[in-house]
C-alpha cells in the first residue's frame, strides 16, 4: 500500500487526503442526528433525563423544553447539510485520485508489457492480459475509491460510538462493545477466506474473456467448421464457471456485510451498396479443380464466402449439386465444405485440439493420416510433446508454413466433398509452398476444389481457370489457352514470370527506352 502511494499519484495525493478527511468527517456528522434525536426524546418523555449531549458545553443548550426542541431540529439540519457537503467532497476527491491512479497504472502496465520478451506473450492468452489491464486495474480504482475509505469510516464509527457510549453509560458501552473482538476475528477470517475466491474469480474472468476473444476472432473458422453448437456449449461452460464463482463471492460477502452493519446473377454488395461481384456465372463439375484468379479486389474471396453462405447473394443463386445454398441447412452445407483461408486461425490449445476441431469423432489414425497428407506430421512429431504440444494463441509458436499445413490437415480431416483454398500459399516461402502444393495435389485428387490464388503457378494445372476483374468474369479456360489468348490472364502470368513490367492493379504498362542525350548519335 505504501509503495502504491509512493509510486503512483504522488502529485494527486492531496485529492486523496481531502477526500479521506471529508469521508471521516461525513461519518462523524452522520452520527449526530440519531444521537441528538435520542437525547431529545429521552428529555421530552422522561422528566428525570437531562438534555445533555456528549462533548457539547451545557451553556450552549437551552434550558426550556421548546428551546431544546428547536436546538435539536437545528443541529440535525446542520448535520444533514454538512453530511451532503462532505459526501460531495469525498466523491470528487477520492474519484479524482482513484481514476488518475488507474490511468497511471494501466499506462505503466502496458509500457511494461511492451518491454517484456515476446516469449511472455507466447504463453499468455489475450483474454488474460486484457483482464489484467481492465478488470484488475478497475478493481484497484474501486478499492481506492470506496473500499479503503469505507474501512476507515468503519474504524472511525466504532471509535466514535465507543466514545459516545462511554460518555453516556460506561456499563452499557462495555456490554455493547464486547462484540468488537468477535467481529474483528470474523473480519480476519473473511479476508483470508475470500482472497483465494477472488483469485479464482479473476481467473474465470480471464478464461471467459479469452474464450470470447478467441471465438470472435475465429468466427470464420467456427462457421466453416459447423461448430457453432460446440462453441456455444464452451461459452456456456466458461460463463457458468464465472457465474458460480461470482455467486460464491457474493454469498460470502452477503454473510459478512450484515455482520458489519451491526455497526454500519450472383451479385453481391456490402452494406455500403458497393457491388463486389456483378453477374458472375461459372460451373465446377464434380472432381474438377476450378481456380479463381484476378487482380486484388476483383472479388475472388467474396465468391468463396458466398459458396459457404458467410454472406448471401443480393441477386442470382449459388448452387451445389443443383440445390440453392439458401435452401439447405448451414450445417449440411458447411459440413460438406473444407475451407483453408489465407488468414490461418488456430485456437489456443494443443495441435491435437486444433486438428480435431470440427471433427471431434476422428480417430488417432485418421488424425495422423490427415497430418501426413498435409505434410504436417513430420514437424509435429519434432515438437516437444508431439500432437499434445500447446501452440499458443493463434498458433504463435509455429511458423506461418506450419500453421498453414495444420489448417489444411484440419480441413481435410473432415473429408469434405468440396475443398475451398483461399490463397493457401500466399504468405509462405518457396520451400514451404512446394510442400503445401505437394500436399494439395494429393488432397485435391478426385475432389471438387475451388482455388483462389494470387500466385498463378499454383493453379496452372487446374481443370479450369476463371479470371475476374472488377467483379466480372472476363476470361474462362485452361492455363495454356488463356496464355495464348493474350488477355488479362496472360498479362498477369507474364508479370509473375518476369516477362513484362505491367501492374495488374492499374493496368498501366511500364516501359523503359534509352534516348540519346545532346551530342550523342
From TrEMBL:
Domain ABC transporter, first and last residues per copy: 250-495
Bias (Basic and acidic residues): 499-521
Keyword Kinase: no
This protein's UniProt keywords: ATP-binding, Cell membrane, Membrane, Nucleotide-binding, Transmembrane, Transmembrane helix, Transport
UniProt membrane topology term: Multi-pass membrane protein
Cited Pfam families: ABC_membrane, ABC_tran
Keyword Nucleotide-binding: yes
SMART domains: AAA
Residues in ABC transmembrane type-1 domain copies: 17-269
GO MF term list: ATP binding
Annotated TM spans: 12-32, 69-94, 148-166, 172-192
UniProt-annotated stretches for the region Disordered: 496-521
Location relative to the cell: Cell membrane
Stored SUPFAM superfamilies: ABC transporter transmembrane region, P-loop containing nucleoside triphosphate hydrolases
Protein's GO biological process: transmembrane transport
Gene Ontology CC annotations of this record: plasma membrane
Name of the protein in its database record: ABC transporter ATP-binding protein
Species per Swiss-Prot/TrEMBL record: Halopelagius fulvigenes
Amino acid at each position: 500500500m505504501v509503495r502504491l502511494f509512493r509510486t503512483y499519484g504522488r502529485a494527486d495525493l492531496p485529492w486523496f487526503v481531502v477526500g479521506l478527511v471529508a469521508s471521516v468527517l461525513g461519518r462523524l456528522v452522520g452520527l449526530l442526528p440519531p444521537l441528538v434525536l435520542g437525547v431529545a426524546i429521552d428529555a421530552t418523555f422522561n422528566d428525570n433525563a437531562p438534555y445533555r449531549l456528549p462533548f457539547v458545553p451545557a451553556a450552549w443548550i437551552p434550558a426550556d423544553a421548546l428551546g431544546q426542541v428547536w436546538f435539536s431540529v437545528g443541529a440535525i439540519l446542520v448535520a444533514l447539510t454538512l453530511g451532503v457537503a462532505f459526501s460531495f467532497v469525498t466523491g470528487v476527491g477520492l474519484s479524482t485520485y482513484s481514476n488518475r491512479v488507474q490511468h497511471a497504472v494501466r499506462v505503466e502496465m502496458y509500457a511494461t508489457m511492451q518491454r517484456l520478451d515476446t516469449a511472455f506473450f507466447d504463453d499468455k492468452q489475450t483474454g488474460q492480459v486484457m483482464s489484467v489491464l481492465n478488470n484488475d486495474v478497475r478493481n484497484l480504482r474501486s478499492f481506492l475509491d470506496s473500499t479503503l475509505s469505507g474501512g476507515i469510516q468503519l474504524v472511525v464509527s466504532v471509535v466514535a460510538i465507543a466514545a459516545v457510549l462511554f460518555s453516556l453509560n460506561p456499563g452499557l458501552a462495555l456490554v455493547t462493545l464486547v462484540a468488537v473482538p468477535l467481529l474483528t476475528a470474523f473480519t480476519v477470517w473473511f479476508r483470508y477466506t475470500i482472497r483465494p475466491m477472488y483469485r479464482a474469480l479473476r481467473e474465470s474472468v480471464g478464461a471467459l474473456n479469452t474464450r470470447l476473444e478467441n471465438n470472435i476472432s475465429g468466427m470464420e473458422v467456427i462457421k466453416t467448421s459447423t461448430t457453432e453448437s460446440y462453441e456455444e456449449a464452451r461459452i456456456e461452460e466458461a460463463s457458468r464457471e464465472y457465474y458460480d464463482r461470482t455467486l460464491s463471492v457474493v454469498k460470502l460477502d452477503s454473510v459478512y456485510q450484515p455482520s458489519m452493519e451491526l455497526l454500519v446473377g450472383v451479385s453481391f454488395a456490402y452494406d455500403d451498396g458497393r457491388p463486389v461481384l456483378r453477374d458472375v456465372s461459372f460451373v465446377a463439375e464434380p472432381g474438377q479443380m476450378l481456380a479463381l484468379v484476378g487482380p486484388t479486389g476483383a472479388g475472388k474471396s467474396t465468391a468463396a464466402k458466398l459458396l459457404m453462405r458467410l454472406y448471401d447473394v443480393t441477386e442470382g443463386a449459388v448452387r451445389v449439386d443443383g440445390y440453392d445454398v439458401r435452401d439447405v441447412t448451414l450445417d449440411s452445407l458447411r459440413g460438406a465444405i473444407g475451407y483453408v483461408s489465407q488468414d490461418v486461425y488456430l485456437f489456443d490449445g494443443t495441435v491435437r485440439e486444433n486438428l480435431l476441431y470440427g471433427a471431434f469423432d476422428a480417430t488417432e489414425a485418421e488424425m495422423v493420416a490427415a497430418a501426413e497428407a498435409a505434410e504436417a506430421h513430420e514437424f509435429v512429431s519434432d515438437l516437444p510433446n508431439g500432437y499434445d504440444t500447446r501452440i499458443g494463441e493463434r498458433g504463435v509458436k509455429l511458423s506461418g508454413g506450419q500453421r498453414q499445413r495444420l489448417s489444411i490437415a484440419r480441413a481435410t480431416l473432415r473429408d469434405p466433398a468440396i475443398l475451398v483454398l483461399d490463397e493457401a500459399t500466399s504468405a509462405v516461402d518457396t520451400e514451404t509452398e512446394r510442400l503445401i502444393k505437394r500436399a494439395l495435389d494429393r488432397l485435391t485428387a478426385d475432389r471438387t476444389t475451388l482455388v483462389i490464388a494470387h500466385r498463378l503457378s499454383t493453379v496452372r494445372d487446374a481443370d479450369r481457370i476463371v479470371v475476374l476483374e472488377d467483379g466480372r468474369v472476363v476470361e474462362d479456360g485452361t492455363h495454356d489457352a488463356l496464355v495464348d489468348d493474350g488477355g488479362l490472364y496472360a498479362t498477369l502470368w507474364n508479370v509473375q514470370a518476369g516477362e513484362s513490367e505491367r501492374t495488374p492493379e492499374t493496368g498501366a504498362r511500364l516501359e523503359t527506352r534509352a534516348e540519346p542525350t545532346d551530342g550523342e548519335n
